[in-house]
Amino acid sequence: MTSLFSPYSLGRLQLPNRIVMSPMTRSRAIGNVPNALMATYYAQRAAAGLLITEGTSPSPDGLGYARIPGLYSPEQIAGWRLVSDAVHAAGGRIFVQLMHTGRVGHPHNLPAGARLVAPSALAAPGTMYTDAAGPQPHPAPVAMTENDIRTALGEFVHSARSAIAAGLDGIELHGANGYLLDQFLNAAINQRSDGYGATIAGRSRFVLEVAKAVADAIGADRVGIRISPYGVFNGTAADADTDALYTHLAAELSKIGIAYLHVVDHSSMGAPPVSAEIKAALRASFRGTYVLSGGYDLPRAEADLAAGKGDLVAFGRPFIANPGLVDKLRNGRELRAPDPALFYTPGEQGYTTWELD
Ligand SMILES: Cc1cc2nc3c(=O)[nH]c(=O)nc-3n(C[C@H](O)[C@H](O)[C@H](O)COP(=O)(O)O)c2cc1C
């Protein structure tokens, strides 16, 4: 029987267990540069089979949230080197999640000269928190030209190479939760009539071009992707083609040969459930590693692994207040609850201050 505590081969990596730390934005990257505090945070959690970092922008245009890190400048590469060295010294393995926020953001959070870009010029719903002026309505983004799309593709490639230069073990493309890649996939946001919209193939094209280009640049075995079919975050919505689009996407990603498909299910956070049928269809269409996520505890993780629903299980919120989560799960110990008021605040409180055991 598969157990959460059995080893697993993922590309070039040997994972000592099947526990993945989910990507979680924590907004401690002052000036969008990773730092020693972040290195401590990730190193504290290095017993996970694989750590996936917080969403990290491959472009100045993708820094839509306050204090999220980027990964494109020499300073950012040096910052990520602190993180990778600390994690490796602690015996861990780490992929960086590349998150271009697209239309989700505000100019107050962006560096000078950067722009909010998206497949179409439709503003995201709701507001974006800014340090300068508190929550602000999302402005309408600039609709990307084909030249802008080529530029963004090049930024993903440069960022993927930068990840390897920084000593990170690989990248996860953030194709979920209504950020730029998902903005192309989702018909409620992508209203283009050119080759990057309109049809299932058109809406999938940018994601597949990015996946192919980063795989060619750093090796497909060092690339994963996160997707959220039926997600309703940041203005995404399902439509009649959702099943067909994601099945097509999974099959094409499988041909590219990337290492893993990480499927978001936020029903534990109040989002609509993601059907067992679409999850099974994705698993059947993608021959690489399948990462389960969303609301997992030990019994459900063991049951889903035993049922063959996935190969690895990602835990998000449980890792925040329990840096020693792997041992705690192994020993059946009680978990501490995190403090949501400290999820995105600067500084060490609620971040690196949790007891390590
Ligand atoms: C504080 C916080 C930040 C998050 N940031 C990200 C992120 O940057 N990228 C992402 O893909 N998901 C992000 N998520 C979603 C988590 O990765 C995960 O899917 C979600 O918390 C559900 O899993 P859980 O029940 O194990 O926490 C975030 C969640 C939380 C609580």
Walk me through the structure:
- With 357 residues, this protein is of the alpha/beta class.
- The protein has helices at residues 36-44, 74-89, 146-165, 180-185, 200-218, 242-256, 276-285, 298-306, 317-321, 325-330; strands spanning 8-10, 13-15, 19-21, 50-56, 94-98, 117-118, 127-130, 134-137, 142-143, 170-175, 223-227, 260-263, 289-293, 312-315.
- It has an 8-stranded parallel β-barrel with strand order 3-4-5-10-11-12-13-14. A two-stranded antiparallel sheet has the order 1-2.
- The structure holds flavin mononucleotide (FMN).
- The site of flavin mononucleotide has 24 residues, from strand 4.
Summed up:
With 357 residues, this protein is α/β, with parallel strands linked by helices. It is built from ten helices and 14 strands. Helix 5 runs parallel beside helix 6.
